[in-house]
Design a protein that fits this description.
Layout (H helix, E strand, L loop, with lengths): L1 H11 L4 E8 L2 E5 L8 E6 L2 E11 L2 E6 L11 E4 L5 E4 L7 E3 L15 E4 L22 H6 L7 E6 L5 H11 L4 E9 L1 H17 L2 E7 L4 H20 L3 E7 L1 H14 L11 H11 L3 E2 L4 E9 L8 H9 L2 E4 L2 H5 L12 E2 L2 H4 L2 H19 L1 H5 L9 H8 L1 H8 L9 H13 L2
Parallel strand pairs: 8-12, 10-15, 10-16, 11-12, 11-13, 13-15
Antiparallel strand pairs: 1-2, 1-6, 2-5, 3-4, 3-6, 4-5, 7-9, 14-15, 16-17
Helix pairs in contact: 3-4, 5-6, 6-7, 7-8, 11-13, 11-15
Length: 432
């Protein structure tokens, strides 16, 4: 009833139009409109009406960014305010569908049903109302489930350079997790890879319980930014219904890059490596929306594309400080055929103690010690300078290197059962 009333009120408002005064780069300046930041407007262009969003106000001028390119927009073109922000679909009718950043189906399927249209903005659950993270969520990957465990409502980052295997790892998680609903945001992906990811990596089984939100690299910055907000709002809708949702975003770095374009177009000064201050304000607002609530939970997995394999670049450093753990992928492991190429020693789960018992932690610690001993002795072993018996821990690590590697490796199509993964780790640690 309230939604119908709001629609009638918006329809009864007088129609006030403004005019385009300038179009520079990816932004439009509009005069003559009384609008708010975040409000959507319709711009008349030679090729039809295009949507734009108000991102900044400078006196009587509203600076807007379109959701498509500016071809066909003329000076003096009519601009009409919509009276509110862009709205996206939320609800169970999205499951099994592939949509764009504004929620429009792009999979050739029927129109959406059983959804409501809401704003993509959301508020993180208040800190004192969040349930504690105390239940492990199986991700279907042995190395993660045992050595970097993830809990329901936890937020984890997957850090790696380009081409190391972040997307493949996400597809394994979506197929293997025991979360009933998965929401995937593919932000800034290559257009060639979207269909391949959906049909091959994700597959019919994964898609049947997933919602995929896509914004390719050629789309405007505002669209790529909205893809992250839309996916998060869809996940929040399922959480509000009491569901335990897995939200996977690939990648949060491209979201930050999109916000950098938006911020610079709005007139913000560039700061660290060209990122304006709004980027570092956006990250906690977006990432804190995942997590537990009194109704359900959103477990967030966010890939971070580190520049030049530098794990301390500004975005990676900021995201790592916000999230509840990080998984580091190693390029050398990837090139040597070790998949998933997880650098266990550099990966940390901040909820580990709340999710595991003493025996599980002891077994994981033993395996970490052996991996560290083998890493430290690697150079001596390769040149033949290590003498057996010098260090008992190194001797054990070398003797069981094959068993350890087989435990950490996993085929792309394999799904590890959580109980079996822990049993294998206990047997491996006990046998050492």
């Amino acid at each position: 009833m309230t939604a119908v009333l709001d629609k009638l009120v918006r329809a009864a408002r007088p129609l006030v139009s403004g005019r385009v005064t300038r179009a520079v780069g990816v932004s439009l300046d509009v005069a003559g409109l009384d609008v708010a930041v975040g409000e959507a407007v319709r711009v008349q262009a030679d090729r039809g009406v295009i949507l734009a969003e108000v991102v900044a106000l400078d006196g009587p001028i509203a600076r807007c960014l379109p959701v498509s390119d500016l071809r066909g927009v003329r000076r003096g073109a009519e601009v009409v305010a919509t009276g509110g922000p862009l709205r996206v679909p939320v609800g169970p009718g999205l499951v099994g569908r592939v949509v764009d950043a504004l929620g429009t189906p792009i999979d050739g399927g029927p129109p959406l049903r059983d959804v409501t249209w809401e704003t993509s903005d959301g508020t993180p659950p208040p800190a004192m109302t969040r349930d504690r993270i105390d239940t492990q969520l199986s991700l279907g990957i042995r190395a993660l489930d045992t050595l970097v465990p993830c809990g329901r409502g936890q937020r984890m980052g997957i850090f790696a350079g380009s081409g190391v295997g972040k997307s493949s790892l996400l597809s394994m998680v979506v197929r293997g997790t025991d979360a009933p609903i998965c929401v995937l945001a593919l932000v800034g992906e290559r257009g060639r890879e979207v269909r391949e990811f959906v049909e091959h990596d994700l597959g019919p089984e994964g898609l049947a319980r997933s919602v995929v939100v896509v914004a390719t690299s050629d789309e405007p910055a505002l669209v790529r930014l909205h893809a992250a907000y839309t996916a998060t709002r869809i996940a929040e809708g399922f959480r509000d219904q009491g569901q335990d949702v897995l939200l996977a975003m690939d990648s949060v770095t491209r979201v930050a890059m999109a916000q950098r374009e938006v911020g610079l177009a709005a007139g913000e000064p560039p700061a660290t490596r060209g990122y304006p201050p709004s980027v570092f304000g956006l990250l906690p607002r977006l990432l804190e929306r995942a997590g537990t609530s009194q109704a359900g939970s959103i477990t967030g997995l966010y890939t971070v594309l580190v520049e030049g394999d530098d794990m301390n670049d500004p975005i990676a450093d900021a995201v790592r400080s916000i999230l509840d753990g990080h998984v580091v992928l190693d390029r050398l492991l990837a090139t040597s055929g070790h998949f998933p190429c997880i650098d266990v020693l550099e990966s940390v789960s901040r909820a580990n103690r709340s999710l595991t018992d003493a025996q599980q932690r002891e077994s994981a610690t033993i395996l970490r010690q052996l991996l560290a001993a083998r890493r430290d002795a690697k150079d001596l072993v390769e040149i033949g300078a290590y003498v057996s018996g010098t260090n008992p821990l190194v001797d054990r690590a070398l003797a069981q290197a094959g068993d350890i590697d087989r435990f950490l490796r996993q085929d792309l199509d394999d799904v590890a059962v959580l109980a079996e993964s822990w049993s294998s780790l206990h047997a491996l640690a006990g046998g050492l």
